[in-house]
Design goal:
258 residues, binds NADP nicotinamide-adenine-dinucleotide phosphate, six-stranded mixed β-sheet, alpha/beta, five-stranded parallel β-sheet
Length: 258
């Protein structure tokens, strides 16, 4: 790395496949910011040391955090944005006077993607599959808009915890055995797991199947773009060059399926 050049890290597992580097690097370049976005694979037991290293290395502007570290990273930071605190998960880290600050831009990304897809949530029944960091951001964003929210997860205990901590009162936790039934009564089904859902193809307009996986779906890609635009602005304090970043993401996604 050339002296003076800065980095933003992507911290997660198997992040070499991520599409974020392509569009974040295009954004830095278009904004004339000397910075590289660099994915790093990290095991859970190495996470505390990596966060300490970032705290000390002022060449690191910040980071994105992805599966599976979004919840585990929270207690390792010095300050947490109230939105991320309410969600209980962090996907973006920035450098502040007190050290490192955690943010969550996934909810913003999800909302902006729903808007682009012209899907109105108010008064609808939603089924969120998964109860990890991304599901938490999605549920928090649906909370005061959807009529009912069901959270379906492989580990029922984790779905119960999510509903209790985020205050889901209408709808609630459901086990994986109830997945097909819950999905059949929902207008919006969100896949917030890395797995395929068997009935996805049967969910057609005016219902919406929102798959968070950016390499598998347009909805996930839109969310990735919008959460990334918000993160760019947090790291740099500058407006994100959205059109350039959108085009770079489209190219990277097309190259990934070619
Ligand atoms: P996470 O915190 O590790 O949670 C993963 C969730 O998926 C857990 O609820 C887990 O269930 C469930 N799960 C894992 N493997 C499964 C399987 N084989 N079958 C059924 N359920 C399974 O991860 P995350 O950060 O929430 O991410 C979840 C997904 O969303 C990932 O694919 C991630 O790439 C994607 N994502 C996309 C965006 C975007 O901008 N497009 C943003 C955030 C996340 P248990 O609790 O039972 O283990």
């Amino acid at each position: 790395m050339a002296e003076g050049s800065r980095r933003v890290l992507l911290i997660g597992s198997a992040v070499g496949q991520s599409l974020s580097a392509a569009f974040q690097n295009a954004g830095f370049q278009a904004a004339g910011i000397d910075c590289r976005y660099q994915p790093i694979d990290v095991e859970a037991n190495s996470l505390p040391r990596l966060i300490d290293d970032i705290r000390r290395d002022r060449g690191v502007l910040g980071a994105n955090v992805t599966i599976p570290h979004k919840q585990a990273v929270l207690p390792l930071l010095d300050e947490i944005d109230p939105g991320a605190n309410r969600i209980g998960a962090v996907n973006t880290i920035s450098r502040v006077d007190s050290g490192l600050k955690g943010w969550n831009t996934d909810g913003q990304g999800f909302e902006a993607a729903l808007e682009e897809l012209r899907f109105e949530v108010s008064g609808k029944v939603a089924a969120v599959v998964g109860a990890g960091g991304a599901a938490r951001a999605v549920v928090a964003s649906l909370l005061h808009r959807a009529d009912r929210i069901y959270v379906v997860n492989r580990s029922l205990r984790r779905a119960e915890e999510l509903c209790r901590e985020l205050g889901v009162e209408r709808g609630g936790p459901a086990s994986f055995a109830e997945l097909a039934r819950v999905a059949s009564i929902a207008s919006l089904v969100v896949n917030a797991t890395p797995a395929d859902l068997p009935f996805a193809a049967s969910i057609v307009s005016p219902r919406l199947y929102f798959d968070l996986r950016s390499r598998k779906s347009n909805s996930g890609r839109l969310m990735l773009l919008h959460q990334g635009l918000a993160a760019f602005e947090i790291w740099t304090g500058r407006p994100a060059p959205a059109a350039v970043m959108r085009a770079a993401l489209k190219r990277a996604a097309e190259a990934a399926v070619a």
